Amino acid sequence: MVFILHRHIFRELLRVFILAAVGLTLITSLGGILRPVQEYGLAPRQVVHLLTYLMPICLTFVLPVAALFASALTYGRFAADNEFDACRASGVSTLTLIYPGFVLAILMAIANLLLSFYVMPYFVHLAEKSLKADARQILFHNIRCRGYYTLSPYVIYADDADVQNDTLYGIVVVHFENDRVKRIITSEATKVQFGLHDKSNEVQLTVSNARQIGDLANDFWWEVGSLMLKREFGSLIEDEIKFKKIEEMKQIQADLMLFGPIAEAARLAYQQLLTELLAQEIGRAMSAPGGVYALGGESRCLRISARGCTLPRRLTIELIAPVVVEEYDPRTSQLLRRLRTDKNASLGIEENASPVQWVLDLSDARVEGTGQLMVRNYIGDLRLPASVAQRLGPDGPLPTAMPERASVLLGGAPSSILADLQRSLVREIHHAQVHILSEIHSRLIFGIGCLPMILIGIGWGILRREGHMLSAFGASCIPATILGVAIISGKQVTEGVDSLVTAGILLMWSGLGFLLVLTALTYRRLLRY
Questions:
Q1: Mean pLDDT of the chain, nearest integer
Q2: Distances (CA, A) of 256 to 24, 397, 398
Q3: Separation between Cα atoms, residue 278 and residue 473, nearest integer Å
Q4: 218-to-184, 212, 366, 520 alpha-carbon distances in Å
Q5: Bridge partners (DSSP) listed for residue 214
Q6: In sequence order, what are the residues at sequence separation of 6 or more whose Cβ sits closer than 8 angstroms to the Cβ of residue 468?
Q7: Helix H or strand E segment including 317
Q8: Which neighbouring-strand residues pair with 227?
Q9: Which of 53, 152, 342, 481 shows the smallest number of beta carbons within 10 Å?
Q10: Is residue 217 predicted with pLDDT exceeding 50?
Q11: What secondary structure letter does DSSP report for 414?
Q12: Measured between alpha carbons, how far is 338 from 367 in angstroms, rounded to an integer?
């Protein structure tokens, strides 16, 4: 008889739970897809694919609410129809009647832990891979519908897009740096190529017969012929700790460079350190009598002379005019040409080059001997000097770019630019470590909290039998809301500016403690009922 009763109650719980879960999942999935649609301009087919990946993600938050609704409604109706009193009069204990709901609560706690630690991150990665695979369609869809596409730090405008030939017509590429326009490139036609990798997605624009205006301090356009722009970007959704599996969090704790924001901050700080080390060597060479500094590459070698150098901005060395550059053939050491300019020149790190390469930018340079004027001349493919590489040692970018190691290499305090990048790197490391800790605790608390939350819904459903059946669910949502507020507040305290880690974690666990106390008080009253 008890088995039949349990089966009857559990069947009612399951029926209401499934209906509630399906409805809430559809609603939350449609709400969650709005941001990717607005940001990437997805086509209908891509929206459907992304929706199938978002539904399992939403289950992490939907299942506890659906189980709470089902338990409060089922047991409330069970008590309102006097079936609860009839079972008690027949000798069935209260705890025996609650057994099906208790099983549901345990299943929901286990399911929530599995969803939050494994399933949700897995489907987030699947959604990201789906977007990466559709990068080509996303770019051309945005160009056709909006007329532009943002691929930081570039904004690409085009009059028309030929999807079949992967070509954009009538393009304008605006390159931003530090929230200002660095250069503008125009062309009649541009070939677009896509490269898909495990952790990144690359878009390469081959611009032919291009014209460019750069730095906007020089108010003129010049022909640049063929130009290649590469942009490699990692996560198309968000590279955040909250989307990581527990194994990925442990891997990040063991190797911080596996986390995208830390790797990017370390890369910038490391490249700025290279820039300052190179600037030191150039400065010492220029200060010597007849000072000349040599830079080599596979296709050419340079001997550069100037009055000195400065560090005006990030990843850039400015050579003070007059600047004389001699180009040599690296194989024969034959002088190819000698350039001279009375304007400052800049030596910067070439974008997306691996290993690090340098490019020299000369303005209004004349070729000695012929008198040919070169309005703008870029000399790239310059390698990092061996003397700088030897000073760096075998360590990777992260340990080398840290303040203590960088100060030893520089022989003193770093520039304000490098100091800012190092502070950003240290801040990213601290935030990642704290976020991992708070994320693990919050997922544990939310998963375990499903158990007392559903038990409270069962108890209040029985106790509030004389009210409306939904009143028990509404009342049970209050403790669930308190748990959510405690988790969110605890995470904010833990991850805040002051990073009160211990206080934030205690605040999160206090919400679970409140639910456990409330559960005990509820069932103490219910057992006396």
A1: 83
A2: 37, 11, 8
A3: 67
A4: 12, 11, 17, 75
A5: 183
A6: none
A7: strand 316-319
A8: 207
A9: 152
A10: no
A11: P
A12: 6
Per-range mean pLDDT, top range of 75-89, 119-133, 213-227 = 75-89
Say if residues 157 and 190 touch (Cβ distance below 8 Å).
Answer: no
- For residue 321, the tally of other CB atoms under 10 A from its CB is 16
Give the amino acid at 383.
R
Given the structure tokens 């609650």, which residue do they identify? 98
Does this model's pTM top 0.90? My answer is no
Cβ–Cβ < 8 Å for 152, 128: no
Name the phi and psi angles at 221, rounded to 5.
Answer: -100, 150
Q: Give the bridge partners for 232, in sequence order.
A: 202
- Sequence-ordered list of residues with C-beta below 8 angstroms from that of 134, at least 6 positions apart, any chain: 42, 46, 49
Check residue 350 and give its pLDDT. 78
The three-class DSSP label of residue 91 is: coil
Spatial neighbors of 68 by CB under 8 A, at least 6 apart, are 453, 454, 457, 473, 476, 477, 480
Three-state SS for 238?
Answer: coil
In this structure, the number of other CB atoms found within 10 A of the CB of residue 180 comes to: 8
Exposure b/e, 419-453, CB count within 10 A at least 16 = b: bebbebbeebbebbbbbbbbbbbbbbbbbbbbbbb
What tens digit of pLDDT does each residue of 89-135 get?
A: 888 888 888 899 999 999 999 999 999 998 888 888 777 777 666 66
Q: Which of 365-379, 392-406, 434-448 has the lowest mean pLDDT?
A: 365-379
